[in-house]
């Protein structure tokens, strides 16, 4: 599909907005009830649904619950099964650590080892984040490896990120976590020469770290997992010919946007800030990815009423975005996060495609899970949205004569 | 998709039931009429449809009418186009002959040849099944081949099954049926060394059979067709992590279940027996495949009213199944068998997915072809049902972070 689109893409002055309400889809809490979105009063979204075309987006495939990575790659038009993002890279992106083509990113766990070097606690008693920050500080001062640039960042509790930057580093390196206690940690081993280079650097890192941490309690060592490189993803601009900007508050979504080559700008803090940022950048870009986190957060918390409120809060700010008169406005989510399940889920995501010049209306006049099921977009794979957006924006030439 | 699922699968204590009403989908007999399912009074199925999510299952692809093999492989989550089951194997399964990895199964036709050995009747005047049984008895006594275990079983009229069991037997062997009369039967020929081994065994079998049958009338020889081996199918348990049992009355469906590695238990005779068997085995398995034959039989007979009755009979027994409180209950068919057509058809099959904890309701409150078209599952490929069932059963981990 990307090969086809690359050949058909055409520049014009149209503006496309992709508004992702994270975890938007939901479920009723009890039989006969309404979902969060069906419960929320959303006059602006309902107007968009009535004027536009709606449907249900399957993020990855039937029954597959996506993480944020695959969820967004699908919305950006990439096949999330073919383009998998390594754990280390996602962890780094999640805390705002940039990952480039020369980098290997690794998840670290502080752990406790005994006098013989055997692991007695794989999470070092879940040390508080302050301790993690302090230990990372010690590592930064005490560990020096020649020929590679090393970045160490705390995450939360016992978790940290290590990033090695250098030439010719591979990421096919085994985890050093033995996955059970009373075992020695494993030596990093590479599956190919480039990864062996990384493994040697990691081994030296761990050797020095063991010495630096030896008198600390309870976290006196660390394990490394999920060695990963920047994924081989063709940039958004090359495939679609779009000059794209990400207007996201949270590091993970900025990071995912950077992975596909979007420009990332300071988005402020609130959705009102974000829409103002879109307005201020309206002439500079063709494509605006706006990420709204709170529909997912409230869903994860199982807070049905709060999720309803954050949907309503998003709806209330929409006129600012609609006032910019985008040629194509998509409202969707990267996955569902039903409050009932307190987690991401596989359920299809309600979606609006609003394109006043080329949209074909359906009979649906409100935005909700059941309503979208009767919409003109039908049920579709998330990765099909981008070609659809380009078509509506007049950015794809006729295929064949 | 199977690679993805294999990596995400996770065990838990959930129970999944797949109830297949063979040939369930139908057509109205005349314009403006109702289908068999729409005509039937089905209070229990309607309750499941109202509480669950419905849709239409396309067994193989648009316009493709499946046999029982591809129809069931799709429902078991296998791509029926990639995994084709050879004719000989299906014929064997249909009469309850087991086929294992060392076997080659072959369909046989008794035929009539003249003094020169030319075929004068490819079906030997459609001899009655009793004659077939008698001739098979003669072959069992008279044919002996060293180094291979030979099984011969009558099917119906002029049809029989031959199974060779041995090491290194291939199945790329041409049919010996010349497909027209007044021609000699063909010599079996193998396309590769392993198949040449089988071809030599088949040639010796046919040489001895010709001698054994030479004085019989009208069936004095046989032809061999559809040489086939056990298909290369990854077991159900390995892909899905499910401990599955088949509760089917007819040999074909037991055989298909065995092909994917399900355990087959004695199912009794009636659907009430079958549901009792499910109940008695509830703690032993995770997944229950229950096969109901009569919706297909009546459809094949063109007996619209009878098909309505057997649907109602199925519905009446459903409370026994629902009382077991499965986590996921799917009601569907392997294909449509409209009474109007007296045959299998390509029409999508009405389907219910009922999963009280995670199901997303739609607006549909009854079970029928037209009603299902408005359902929350939309129109989907049969092979997508298994991943969906696993998702609803909480048996798939999140994909990516």
Describe the SSE topology.
2 copies of one chain form a homodimer.
Chain A: H1 2-8, E1 16-21, H2 36-39, H3 43-51, E2 53-58, H4 68-75, H5 87-94, E3 103-113, E4 119-121, H6 129-142, E5 149-154, E6 159-165, H7 193-213, E7 221-229, H8 236-240, E8 244-247, H9 251-259, E9 263-264, H10 271-280, E10 287-292, H11 294-300, H12 304-322, E11 328-332, E12 349-354, H13 369-372, E13 378-381, H14 385-392
Parallel strand pairs in A: 1-10, 1-11, 2-13, 8-9, 8-10
Antiparallel strand pairs in A: 2-12, 3-4, 3-6, 3-7, 5-6, 11-12
Helix pairs in contact in A: 5-9, 6-7, 10-12, 11-12
Please provide a written account of the structure:
Two copies of one chain form a homodimer. Chain A is of the alpha/beta class. The first copy, chain A, has two domains: 2-84 and 233-392, Alkaline Phosphatase, subunit A, CATH 3.40.720.10; 89-229, Alpha-Beta Plaits (2-Layer Sandwich), CATH 3.30.70. Chain A has helices spanning 2-8, 36-39, 43-51, 68-75, 87-94, 129-142, 193-213, 236-240, 251-259, 271-280, 294-300, 304-322, 369-372, 385-392, and strands at 16-21, 53-58, 103-113, 119-121, 149-154, 159-165, 221-229, 244-247, 263-264, 287-292, 328-332, 349-354, 378-381. An eight-stranded mixed β-sheet of chain A has the order 9-8-10-1-11-12-2-13, with helices on both faces. In chain A, strands 3, 4, 5, 6 and 7 form a five-stranded antiparallel β-sheet that branches. In chain A, a hairpin with a 4-residue loop joins strand 5 (149-154) and strand 6 (159-165). The longest helix of chain A is centred in the middle third of the chain and has 21 residues, at 193-213. The two termini of chain A are 18 Å apart.
């Amino acid at each position: 599909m990307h090969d086809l689109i690359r050949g058909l893409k055409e520049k014009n002055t149209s503006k496309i907005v992709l508004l992702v309400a994270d975890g938007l889809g939901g479920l009723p809490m009890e039989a006969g009830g309404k979902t969060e979105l069906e419960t929320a009063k959303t006059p602006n979204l309902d107007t968009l649904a009535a004027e536009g075309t709606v449907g249900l987006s399957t993020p990855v495939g039937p029954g597959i619950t996506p993480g944020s990575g695959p969820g967004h790659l699908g919305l950006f038009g990439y096949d999330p099964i073919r383009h998998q993002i390594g754990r280390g890279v996602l962890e780094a992106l999640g805390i705002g650590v940039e990952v480039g083509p020369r980098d290997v990113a690794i998840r670290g766990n502080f752990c406790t080892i005994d006098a013989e070097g055997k692991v007695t606690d794989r999470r070092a008693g879940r040390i508080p984040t302050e301790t993690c920050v302090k230990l990372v500080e010690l590592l930064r001062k005490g560990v020096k490896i020649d020929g590679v640039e090393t970045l160490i960042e705390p995450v939360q509790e016992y978790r940290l990120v290590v990033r090695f930057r250098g030439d010719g580093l591979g990421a096919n390196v085994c985890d050093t976590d033995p996955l059970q206690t009373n075992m020695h940690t494993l030596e990093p081993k590479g599956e190919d020469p480039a990864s062996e280079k990384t493994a040697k650097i990691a081994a030296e890192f761990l050797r020095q770290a063991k010495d630096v941490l030896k008198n600390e309690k309870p976290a006196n060592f660390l394990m490394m997992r999920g060695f990963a490189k920047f994924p081989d993803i063709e940039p958004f601009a090359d495939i679609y010919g779009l000059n794209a900007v990400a207007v996201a508050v949270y590091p993970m979504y900025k990071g995912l946007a950077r992975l596909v080559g979007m420009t990332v700008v300071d988005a402020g803090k609130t959705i009102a800030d974000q829409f103002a940022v879109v307005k201020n950048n309206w002439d500079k870009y063709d494509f605006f990815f706006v990420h709204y986190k709170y529909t997912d957060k409230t869903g994860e918390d199982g807070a049905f009423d709060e999720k309803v409120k954050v949907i309503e809060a998003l709806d209330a700010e929409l006129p600012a975005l609609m006032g910019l008169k985008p040629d194509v406005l998509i409202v969707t989510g990267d996955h569902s996060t039903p409050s009932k399940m307190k987690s991401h889920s596989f359920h299809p995501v309600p979606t609006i495609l609003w394109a006043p010049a080329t949209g074909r209306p359906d009979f649906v006049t409100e935005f909700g899970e059941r309503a979208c099921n009767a919409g003109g977009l039908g049920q579709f794979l998330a990765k099909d949205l981008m070609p659809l957006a380009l078509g509506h924006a007049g950015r794809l030439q006729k295929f064949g004569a």
